[in-house]
């Protein structure tokens, strides 16, 4: 039946986003992920990918995926709890648990659904959840799905966290939730202080290591390993989509945690498991990570070179202490303009604006990888400086 309904109201909202510099048109890239990529017929230096170690192009990972398609076919055929747990899924989870030093690990379809599914099922009305204000959207959404009492602490503010724990006075089971590395600022959570407070007040600790997996800790084992807090963090979430170079997420911890999530986490229960090629590629990547310290050292070396060059030039890189290096610009329209001019100069660094970050904290977020050469990074700095001077961000 014909309908006279129109979507004018959607268009109005899109026009508002456009007026305020918040409208996004995803660039379409040709070729593989890497330090140089093509879009619209132009070759650009890429500073926005999470492919920290260049694993998306690794021949061993690709060969494992191809072999798995031959052995298991293209899809898993079902959700995990019916016929969708193939040998390769099981093997990946054992490998992940061993790598992380936990009893068990459970793989989800993405990092996003890991947080959504794990938080929504772990937090009921008897729980208090206290979350860093800069935690990732998937944590915020996971918490929104629960009936838990919610508290937020100012970014990395341990006094505020302690006050919230004190107010609770042991009445509810408390969960402290934090990113291991913060995705928009590139700073590291004060995990030792969080764990100490958790132990003082009997709380659980939940860490999202999306940007710490493959980056922090020995061979990229994550923030728990980096701070030597093994056995003191109750839920370690990671992604398989960033440094690991494939797609997916996982929650690592006690065996009982895994068995509970299998029964309760809705994205796990009601969505088809990864294709065998994905699981096999992840498995090959985790095996490679075990010998990847030299590559990780190169990543950190690149990051400190790039960050200190930007600071020498007068840019504000916020609290960055990892390969995520934001260059702070300001309001959304100014940030969008900076990013656009940078692209004209041959460098792609995504503008991140409100509501992802505060209205006056727009930034171009640069992500350094191990695959960048020093020349690549020096080129990027030159272009950032040129645009910085042109726009008045630099004096
Ligand atoms: N947590 C954090 C901190 C992230 O930055 C991201 C990626 N944007 C996710 C979770 C979601 O991970 P994925 O892309 O694997 O869904």
TrEMBL record:
<dbReference type="InterPro" id="IPR004839">
    <property type="entry name" value="Aminotransferase_I/II_large"/>
</dbReference>
<dbReference type="GO" id="GO:0030170">
    <property type="term" value="F:pyridoxal phosphate binding"/>
</dbReference>
<protein>
    <submittedName>
        <fullName>Glycine C-acetyltransferase</fullName>
        <ecNumber>2.3.1.29</ecNumber>
    </submittedName>
</protein>
<dbReference type="InterPro" id="IPR015424">
    <property type="entry name" value="PyrdxlP-dep_Trfase"/>
</dbReference>
<dbReference type="InterPro" id="IPR050087">
    <property type="entry name" value="AON_synthase_class-II"/>
</dbReference>
<keyword id="KW-0808">Transferase</keyword>
<dbReference type="Pfam" id="PF00155">
    <property type="entry name" value="Aminotran_1_2"/>
</dbReference>
<keyword id="KW-0012">Acyltransferase</keyword>
<feature type="domain" description="Aminotransferase class I/classII large">
    <location>
        <begin position="44"/>
        <end position="384"/>
    </location>
</feature>
<dbReference type="InterPro" id="IPR010962">
    <property type="entry name" value="AONS_Archaea/Firmicutes"/>
</dbReference>
<dbReference type="GO" id="GO:0008890">
    <property type="term" value="F:glycine C-acetyltransferase activity"/>
</dbReference>
<comment type="subunit">
    <text>Homodimer.</text>
</comment>
<dbReference type="InterPro" id="IPR001917">
    <property type="entry name" value="Aminotrans_II_pyridoxalP_BS"/>
</dbReference>
<keyword id="KW-0663">Pyridoxal phosphate</keyword>
<dbReference type="InterPro" id="IPR015422">
    <property type="entry name" value="PyrdxlP-dep_Trfase_small"/>
</dbReference>
<dbReference type="InterPro" id="IPR015421">
    <property type="entry name" value="PyrdxlP-dep_Trfase_major"/>
</dbReference>
<comment type="similarity">
    <text>Belongs to the class-II pyridoxal-phosphate-dependent aminotransferase family.</text>
</comment>
